[in-house]
Design goal:
Blueprint lengths: L6 H15 L6 H12 L7 E6 L5 E5 L12 H12 L7 E7 L5 H6 L1 H21 L9 E9 L5 E10 L1 E3 L6 E3 L8 H21 L15 H11 L6 E4 L5 H11 L10 E5 L2 E8 L5 E8 H9 L10 E5 L6 H12 L12 H9 L13 E7 L13
Antiparallel strand pairs: 1-2, 1-13, 3-5, 3-8, 4-5, 4-12, 6-7, 9-10, 10-11
């Protein structure tokens, strides 16, 4: 069921004014995201007509924009991705580890997304893999799935990585599986220091190579002395790495991944009101035990906060580390299953998209909602011109 208010509705009503007011600062990625969300599942996208073979009931299905920032387009992509991950699960405990970048680095990261987000992934991978390989802690080759998040509940810029990590790894001799201690993955203080040192060193290299820019209020950091002093000060700030207890089983792992991997800055279930140029939405205040509250922002500020979480074109927000890295994941997982005496996985590619959609919506898109007959495609709908001011009634 369509929510009463969607992020797309806010963009359609206030997007043109936002574009006009911020024309000099709005980048190509942000413009494409806005246009995609506004057009998603409207006549602008085109689509197809379906008709029941028995009763003649007809319906129009407009195409999705498939933009990864669109709140409406993540369901099927999430289902397909989760099926692939389900086939890769091992019969071991899984841990949830979160790496958080200190707030003083937020502005640098925001103005240098490709460089700093990439540094975050590499520093995280190095910390996990190096500490895991250290015989003092585990002494094994570990694997992880890392997911980039840049937002908090109030849509402020809050840079962190969520990692799902199997509890153990492949021994250096490749002939046995080394498990973690019960209920314990790796020491978070050691991970925190490795993460901090690796991140800072890579940031220094990026600065020396001229890969960072410092506009507006950050202009003073373009000076090498000032930048070095800024990094020294960051060494005194706590770099938070948090490791939660292991999940109860594979179903919990997949449930968690389903909530986090294809999430966007705000779901369509959270906007509540759009009135007098103001947007109201629900949020959880984790400083008060996750109490649900209502926040109201000017539409311009709401759009600004949403767009600051766009990811650069071509940037991979989900990455696989260690023995789960793309270059050797299939072979390494086969080795892990042999070491754990685990059965081979099924093949998720055999399922149809209609089956996945049925599980997501609890509805069969091939069945007529009127008589239960079979819905058949009866041709395509060509894309229509963009409506004035994006006031689409669909």
């Amino acid at each position: 069921m369509r929510p009463k208010l969607e992020v797309a509705d806010i963009f359609r009503h206030h997007g043109p004014a936002y574009r006009a007011a911020h024309a000099d600062r709005l980048g190509g990625t942000e413009r494409r995201v806005m246009a995609a969300i506004e057009a998603c599942r409207t006549s602008t996208q085109g689509g197809h007509v379906e008709r029941c073979a028995d009763c003649g009931f007809s319906r129009y299905a407009y195409s999705s924009c498939r933009n990864r920032h669109c709140p409406k387009c993540q369901g099927l992509a999430r289902a397909e991705w989760l099926e692939a991950r389900q086939a890769e699960l091992l019969p071991v405990p899984y841990f949830h580890v979160v790496f958080t970048v200190p707030a003083p680095l937020a502005d640098i990261a925001f103005h240098n997304k490709s460089a700093v987000y990439g540094i975050l992934f590499r520093a995280c991978a190095e910390a996990l893999c190096n500490v895991g390989a250290d015989r003092r802690y585990l002494g094994a080759e570990i694997g992880a799935i890392a997911v980039l998040h840049t937002w908090g509940q109030a849509l402020h810029h809050h840079l962190h990585l969520h990692c799902i990590v199997p509890g153990g790894g492949i021994a250096p001799d490749q002939i046995r599986w080394i498990p973690c201690l019960p209920g314990f993955f790796l020491p978070v203080r050691v991970l925190s220091r490795r993460f901090r040192d690796g991140f800072a060193q890579r940031l220094r290299t990026a600065f020396a190579d001229g890969e960072l820019r410092f506009p507006d209020a950050l202009a003073n950091l373009a000076d090498p002395t000032a930048f070095a002093a800024h990094l020294i000060a960051l060494a005194e700030v706590e770099w938070v790495v948090y490791s939660k207890p292991p999940f109860a089983g594979p179903e919990q792992v997949l449930g968690y991944l389903g909530r986090y991997t294809h999430r966007v800055a705000i779901a369509n279930s959270r906007p509540i009101g759009l009135e007098d140029g103001q947007v109201s939405f629900s949020w959880k205040d984790y400083h008060q035990d996750g109490k649900t509250k209502l926040m109201t922002l000017e539409a311009d500020e709401f759009i600004r906060r949403f767009l600051q979480h766009t990811v650069p074109d071509g940037f991979h927000r989900i990455r696989h580390l260690g023995f789960l890295a793309n270059s050797h994941r299939t072979a390494k997982l086969a080795l892990c299953r042999d070491l754990l005496a685990a059965p081979p996985p099924g093949d998720p590619s055999l399922r149809r998209w209609q089956d996945r959609l049925r599980e997501l919506t609890w509805q069969d898109v091939e069945v007529c909602p009127c008589c239960g007959g079979r819905m058949l495609s009866r041709g395509t709908i060509p894309p229509q011109p963009r409506p004035p001011m994006w006031c689409d009634s669909s």
